Amino acid sequence: MTEKATSSRIGQPVRRKEDLRLVTGNGSYTDDINLPGQAYAVMVRSPHAHAGIRAIDIAPALAAPGVLAVLTGRDLLADGLKPIPHKVWSQHPAEVHLREHAGFKTFTAPHYALPPDKVRFVGEAVAMVVATTVAAAKDGAELVEIDYEQLAAVTDTLEAARPDAPRLFEEAGSNVVVDGELGDRAATGAAFARAAHVVKFETWVQRVTGVPMEPRAAVCEFDPDTERYTLYAGNGGAWRLKDDLATILGVPADQVRCIMRDIGGNFGTRGMIYAEFALVAWAARRLGQPVKWTGDRHEAFLCDYQARDLAVTAELALDGQGNFLAMRGSNLSNAGAHTTNYSPLQKGVEIMTTIYRIPAAHFHARAVVSNTSPTRPYRSAGRPEVMYVMERLIDLACREHGFDRVEIRRRNLVKKTEFPYKNAFGMVYDSGDYHHTMNWVLESGDWNGFPARRAAARARGKHRGIAVANYLDTATGVARERTEMTVHPDGWIDVVIGTTSQGQGHETTFAQLVNEWYDVPIENVRIITHDTDIVKFGGGAHSGRGMRLASQIMWKATNQIIARGKRVAALLLQAKPEAIAFTGGRFAVGGGDQAIDLFEVSAAMLRRTDLPDDLRGPLAATVDEVVPEASFPFGSHVCEVEIDPDLGTLEIVKYSAVDDVGRAVNPLIIDGQTHGGIVQGVGQALLEQCFYDARTGQLLSASFMDYAMPRADVFPFFDTGISEVPTPTHPLGIRPAGEGGTTPALAVTINAVVDALSEFGVRHVEMPATPERIWRAMHGKPKRPQTLELS
Fold this sequence. Notes:
The chain is an alpha+beta fold. Helix 11 runs parallel beside helix 12, helix 16 runs parallel beside helix 17 and helix 17 packs across helix 18. It starts with a helix and ends in a 12-residue tail after the last helix. The relative contact order is 0.13.
């Protein structure tokens, strides 16, 4: 084949072929879609964090010019719309599930797109105004009069768990909606009793939001003749959106079509349906015309699903030589106003011991509701929090009991000869070489040369710190995926698959797989993912499942196509099927000159009438499978920082990362994913926080003026390495690569900060480690977090 084809194989750093379209303004995002005769929706949002809805007067708004309808929660109930479905737990067969405490039943809150009774967070939509223009809809929204009964609110994670906290759902009995445990309490207690050292750590991993490039938008049309809805909206996966919308509308799934164009970021916060998506569909049916809604950035800060928000108390037991004996503690997750998902709690607790050999562990795991925007899984859901806790515990143990930070990690890392390895909670890790990645990153980060750099910084009046952190990620998610692969006679190969890209580069990397297997230029591969009328099923892109599952089922479809093609080629070349080999895009007899091209076989199958019935028609294959195995990416990062003691300002002077992906399909894209992941993690460690006023429940960081985002000019060039230890749970050895940058970044950044401040006797700095917090840690007395009761 051509050089263009062979240069795009697996392992090559191919530039993303979708980028030319996107950077030249030829992308198609949801707000770019406009339908003939569409009306425009604007949401009336609650100014209160917690309030009963006594009455809503819509008459003034209906009388306003251009207003077509004003809809409320009572209208929604009258029309029979159902609550937004909450798939709260990961159902992957490899997950370890919490044991509920006796007498406790996990609570899933009813969540209507418009609340009929009361609002539970600032910004929750209370009514929808639909008008002929956006301006008319906004004018109408200002005229809707709502009589609220203000109620006491609670936003703080620990406060929400108190028995006397303001109650969000009376039927739940309290704000605690999950109460369970994992591990062996007795064995853990016995290990702590014989420990030579015990170190304790209390922290709150603050709440953040995804801040995607593209604010949310949706437009829907309803066909009264077919009674079908067609929704255009960006989401984590078109098929879940279709199913959830059908559930809310109370119609069969085949009456809903979802189309997703380009999506400007997800990171998990767009992993499920939003209220507005259902509302525009409902309004389109009622009005008999398409309805469009586009949110602004302020609405995104208020109402996008948020993330993290975990209060932790943890203890680590060690013997006199620094061997880890046991771990125990309590994790309390803040679900926000509606119980959309408990997976971050589950996915974190089940790997609290991370990649270290810890024989016994026990954790109490709870979740609460509060008067804040709901939370969802966010890049590496639940894992950055627990890596942060473990790596902070290790550094604290070294600081308090004299262990070396590198040697204690080497001593306790699971060895490559111990795989498959079952941790103390029952989670089984597939494979790895944890010592290799740590040794590699210590070398690339020049760990041994740090004392000289610290001394030089001190001579300039600055304080340097360095840290290393190891991590493990868990790739599970929806276990089922489907593909339809078709080889067309004109030289194109179509791959229909339900794993939708939100910026991961699937158009390029999926095409590289096809190039590897068929020797077809990636320009001739069409990846079709966006339309549920074409894609028959798809699990979407989340939990590291995109490339991992797509590559498996595409590989199986390829094998079926090649096997079928060999049978056709044998007939055409008058040879036995077992004599046919497929190489370089051609079917050849015994590797000789007697051969036929892949696309010639495809053409023959469509044209020839003398072939057996099972060899006539398109050269295609369909694979629809459940993949029950999990995958466990891992790696090690080193961060070096320098702090100005007069201002508390911090500079990241060097950041090195080594991440294992099993087998790298496109190293260039992997590096890009790693860079972005590091920035997201460091952004949380140093800058970002969704800050709610404890008294009023108002979000005080609801704009870019108040929510601090990381910028390119505050980072050095990253030094990244890609480790490739194949996983036995994947036929190609592939692990996910998209979340590894984030998972250890919280831990390694804060450990480096604390190391820089060690001469001031600083034990810990809470996230975000802002200049003010750093300065106060050096010169003042920082406020300690509240204590969580261990159980």
